[in-house]
Amino acid sequence: MADWQSLDPEAAREAEKYDNPIPSRELILQHLSERGSPAAREQLVEEFGLSSEEDIEALRRRLRAMERDGQLIYTRRGTYAPVDKLDLVCGRISGHRDGFGFLIPDDGSDDLFLSPAQMRLVFDGDRALARVAGLDRRGRREGAIVEVISRAHETIVGRYQEESGIGFVMADNPKIQQEVLVTPGRSMDAKPGQFVEIKITHWPTQRFQPQGDVVEVIGNYMAPGMEIDVALRSFDIPHVWPEAVKREASKLKPEVEEKDKQKRVDLRHLPFVTIDGEDARDFDDAVYCEKLSNWKLFSGGFRLYVAIADVSHYVKVGSALDQEAEVRGTSVYFPERVVPMLPEELSNGLCSLNPHVDRLAMVCEITLSKSGKMTDYQFYEAVIHSHARLTYNKVSSMLEQPSSADGKRLVDEYRDVLPHLKQLHALYKVLLKARHTRGAIDFETQETRIVFGAERKIAAIKPTERNDAHKLIEECMLCANVATARFLQDHDLPGLYRVHDGPPLERQEKLRAFLGELGLTLHKGKEGPTPKDYQALLEQIQGRPDFHVIQTVMLRSLSQAVYSPDNNGHFGLNYEAYAHFTSPIRRYPDLLIHRAIRSVIRSRRETSHVRREGATSMPKARIYPYDEAALEQLGEQCSMTERRADEATRDVVNWLKCEFMKDRVGETFPGVITAVTGFGLFVELTDIYVEGLVHVTAMPGDYYHFDPLHHRLSGERSGRSFRLGDSVEVRVMRVDLDERKIDFELISGGSKSSGRDSGSEENRPPRKDGRTKKGGDKAAGSRKEEVSPEVRKSRELKKALLSDAKSGGAKKPKRGSAKPKASGKASDKPDGGASRKRKAKP
User: Fold this and answer.
1) Nearest-5° angle of CA 128, CA 132, CA 138?
2) Other beta carbons within 10 Å of 568
3) Do 799 and 690 belong to one domain?
4) How many whole angstroms separate alpha carbon 27 and alpha carbon 4?
5) How far is CA 82 from CA 86, 104, 373, in A?
6) Other Cβ atoms within 10 Å of 237 Cβ, number
7) Distance, CA of 816 to CA of 570 (rounded, Å)
8) Residue 133 sits in a domain of what CATH number?
9) Which end of the chain is more exposed for a tag (fewer CB within 10 A), N or C?
10) Coil, strand or helix: which one is 689?
11) CB burial of residue 836 (10 Å; 0-12, 13-18, 19+)
12) Looking at the structure, do residues 300 and 165 belong to the same domain, yes or no?
């Protein structure tokens, strides 16, 4: 096949990308499928007619890449075969805290269930190939691991323990259940109970547990700040600056150089201000607004200036700063600690729009009509001078409570910028009305902040209030982001959009069924419900006692927003196109968008949507060298880092809340049911904002049946039901910091239902003898005798759990602690098999 290029469907693409092209992935897969059997690399070299050492090495690298990506498998005979020809499924491993797991296929097909025995070969997050081994007892496809393609974790974070002289580490991540044995002499003198990071040197097999070397002793259990140190490593969040990044950052001057201010639009005369939280340190955005004159017909309205830190001026494509920012993806905001995307020389210094200093900015200038409709926009490089660093609370006092003592003091202090703040407030009211007309969804969610006392111990958990200043800045940022998306479309630029798809059909159906039971409907057009339909329903249920319940179910029906080069609009905000422009200091997608805009500003392209002040034209490849394929990968990377940051901060907050509740075991609190499952109720404590689980065994003696349609657990005998949003009273039974779990016992609450909703006779499951109760005393007595042992067992379990919690949980071995000796019976071991001895490899 010396003329393979004539057969290659992607020959033109390969020729454009490489000086010496080789067969594309598509041709290799096609050829292996058509030849009828797997082939060794040497066979492929001969069949494709490759002769030069350079081509042969390039083919070797391509085959390895295809193997890594799950397109090919390298067989035990030393040959390559297409995965789909071997009926194998490629996907990502998702572990479960109970030991089993799933392989989530790349092709979107149904997940493969993985038994605990199979999960001992892999870790959560690994990519693997599996074959379908059959169906489990629930009818799910069950998988058997064939090959691990790539490992998600080179290191594991957990607590070091010793048993019988052998050290081991149990991962802090509950989805990883394997104990990692420590190579003898490689523990770095860690003490039992300390958190450590261990590097895996031997991966798990059917016969051996994973093994590794301790590379860092992180610190003592319960030490202040340990929760963040553990989360950074558990979630693989980069937090140490590479030396190359440090060198580049050290070369930056502390202030903007005069030469950099040249050939930019000079806006230093405009009274820009920044408005942020009390503890903010990096200031991405500054705003200024002026009212347009009314002397012409159809005139009037506003001109809004949104100045954003010009990060792309300093962070060049391909630099060490850029590469590290891409890997980090986003700044991570933990309680009272930030892990920034960029070094502090930039994030808090040269790029931050600090007050009373000159700063470089990328400005979005927007013209809006009197009704808040965008009529024009321009982007340009500028130099600005922030006139004040304001906070949300200060601005709120000046605009909403100017007659208060605090308001009067602030009005006098900021009298120079107050008229412009009033213009911003006037614009906000117009934009808010336009938002309602557009039909964006406005969910009322409650955010909280943690207040620390001495030694980083929680003193209180308080709700945060959103005032007009928060909403004012939000509307200004929305305007700039919409203009950005329009800029990408108007100039046919590939870029990352912020995409929020509509609710999946399955969730829509569940939501409609839930609403139907309450006598409510969600309007459905030809393509499903619109954001306006959601907002109309929210307005309809305002004032209802079950408002928060309904809102929660509506919120859970929506998709998660992602970054993608394919613009599918933003459902929640009801925008046809939306992109992130306003936070390049802390979000990598915004930095990419700035580069896209600059590629047009620094070109000779004719457009009315940019303003140039004589800056030198630059090749697009130097500013914005991204095609659709590259942006697809970057979108996935940025979406992943965003989820990773969310999961890490959630884990830290859960740790802190568990720590907060450890001294409150045995106390009772009022709460609200926030979720209902088949195994119990999740309850959030009123005024404390801590959530825990009321397991079904910690509920009043009865058999409880889960009704997913009504989000309810109903007692079979008592008829008492517990619904999402019900008020209850609970007692704190147990706090498990290792698992980040809090267990409650139900004291009171729920409601006595009637008819079909109460779990009445016609809705109950049939008795074992097939008969139904007819109401006689004898039947009642018989039923009582059946139930009593279970009720007693439940009560005994509750008492044991409460007693255990009060005594510090001494009776229950913690994850990662030394286990009690097994009885030696096969039934005591996982899967009824032989015990797996701890035996470290040398």
Assistant:
1) 115
2) 14
3) yes
4) 8
5) 7, 19, 54
6) 21
7) 44
8) 2.40.50.140
9) C
10) coil
11) middle
12) no
**CA-derived radius of gyration, the chain:** 31
**Both 612 and 477 in a single domain?**
yes
Mark 722-761 as b/e (b = at least 16 C-beta within 10 Å): bbbbbebbbbbbbbbbbebebbbbbeebbeebeeebbbee
CA–CA gap between residue 569 and residue 321 (Å, rounded): 31
Q: What type of residue is 690?
A: V
Residues paired with residue 112 on neighbouring β-strands, in sequence order: 103
User: Are residue 530 and residue 626 in the same domain, yes or no?
Assistant: no
CA–CA gap between residue 784 and residue 765 (Å, rounded): 16
CA distance 57 to 52: 9
- Alpha-carbon distance of 154 to 123, in angstroms, equals 11
φ and ψ of 70, to 5 deg: 80, 15
Total length of the chain: 842
**Phi-psi region for residue 479, left (φ > 0), alpha (ψ -120 to 50) or beta?**
alpha
**Exposure string over 454-491, b if 16+ CB within 10 A, otherwise e:** eebebeebeeeeeebbbbbbebbbbbbbbbbbbbbeeb
For residues 471 and 547, membership in a common domain is answered with no
Nearest to 267 by CA among 362, 351, 367, 388: 362
How many helices (H) and strands (E) the chain has is answered by 23, 34
Is residue 286 within 8 A of residue 274, CB to CB? The reply is: yes
Containing structural domain, residue 691: 665-765+786-806
Q: How far apart are CA 111 and CA 95, in angstroms?
A: 12
Rounded mean pLDDT of 777-786? Answer: 40
Full-model pTM: 0.79
Q: Specify if 775 maps to a domain.
A: no
Structure tokens, 121? 């070969």
Indicate whether 252 pLDDT > 60. Answer: yes
Q: What is the pLDDT of residues 212-243, one digit of tens each?
A: 999 999 999 888 899 999 999 999 999 999 99
Q: What is the pLDDT of residue 824?
A: 38
Query: Mean pLDDT across the stretch 284-301?
Result: 79
The per-residue b/e assignment along 66-95, b for 16 or more CB within 10 angstroms, e otherwise, is bbeebbbbbeeeebbbbbeeeebbbbbbeb
User: Could you report the per-residue pLDDT of 333-367, keeping only the tens digit for each?
Assistant: 999 899 999 999 999 999 999 999 999 999 999 99
In a domain, 833, yes or no: no
Give all strands (DSSP E) within 412-564, no chain letters. 448-452, 458-463, 497-499, 562-564
pLDDT of residue 840: 41
Looking at the structure, tell me whether residues 469 and 429 fall in a common domain.
yes
